[in-house]
Amino acid sequence: MATSAAFTATVSAITDAFGDPTRRRIYLFVRDHGADDGVTAAAVASEVGVHPNVARHHLDKLAAGGYLEVRSGRVAGGGAGRPSKRYHAVADAITEFPVRSDDLVLSLLGRALELLSPKDAERMAEQVGAEYGRAMAAGLTGEALDAGHRSMRAAMQAVADALTAHGFAAHAESRNDRLRIINDHCPFGDVALEHPVICAVDRGMVRGMLSELYDGELGEITTESSRPAGDTFCTTAV
Predict the structure, then answer these.
(1) Are 61 and 23 contacting, i.e. CB atoms less than 8 angstroms apart?
(2) Rounded CA gap, 236 and 200, in Å?
(3) Whose CB among 9, 88, 166, 194 lies 3.0–4.6 Å from 38's, allowing a Cys bridge?
(4) Half-sphere exposure of 84 (CA within 13 A, CB side)
């Protein structure tokens, strides 16, 4: 029988690997379609609807956890060129996913925010996001931090990269004289749909990171679009 410490470590490892819904979906896709030739990051990106770099990030995380294995090769009948990485599910690596404790925490947070006035709830949610964003920025070093202090555009790209690493699948773009962070995926999932005020956390995270990465005046930071409002993407504009 596994010891309590071993069991806790196993649950922790599984939660870390599969805590993100996109990563769970990617794992299931590889498990169901990669038995023979495996699947590529491009195929996963097309199936899940994320950028290939985001798909590769999740695939490599799963591989590092021992849930996928990576092989180099071509599909039978494929053309010449450099062999691509192909991902295969490791047999019997995992049979079920544990209940995610953060789902329960987010649901509790959403209900707690409902007890406040809409204005107070949004203010609190943005403050929490800003505090977390500043902590995230403090963990950035080297080129990401230095580039952020050179220009707002570079800082926004550093923010997008940090958000992507936290499950947002974000990218930065410039349009109509404003810089924007576009989130193709929301790690808050259905909780944000049920409690849209949680979207203020996203805005706060952007504000918090930029306050550490950019020396100039930030100006107004707004939520231009969000999934809870029926939009396709969540957009934060600066």
Answers:
(1) yes
(2) 10
(3) 88
(4) 17
**Fold of the domain spanning 4-89:** Arc Repressor Mutant, subunit A (1.10.10)
Fold of 101-237: Muramoyl-pentapeptide Carboxypeptidase; domain 2 (3.30.1380)
The neighbour count for residue 59, using CB atoms within 10 Å, is 25
Torsional class of 112: left (φ above 0), alpha (ψ -120 to 50), beta (otherwise): alpha
Whole-structure pTM value? 0.55
What's the CA gap between 129 and 198, in Å, rounded? 9
Which amino acid appears at position 74 of this protein?
Answer: R
The CA distance from 231 to 227, in Å, is 5
* Euclidean distance between CA atoms 31 and 178, whole angstroms: 42
**Cβ atoms of 55 and 26 closer than 8 Å:** yes
Domain ranges of the chain: 4-89, 101-237
pLDDT tens digits along 142-156? 544 554 456 888 888
Q: How many CB atoms lie within 10 A of CB 83?
A: 11
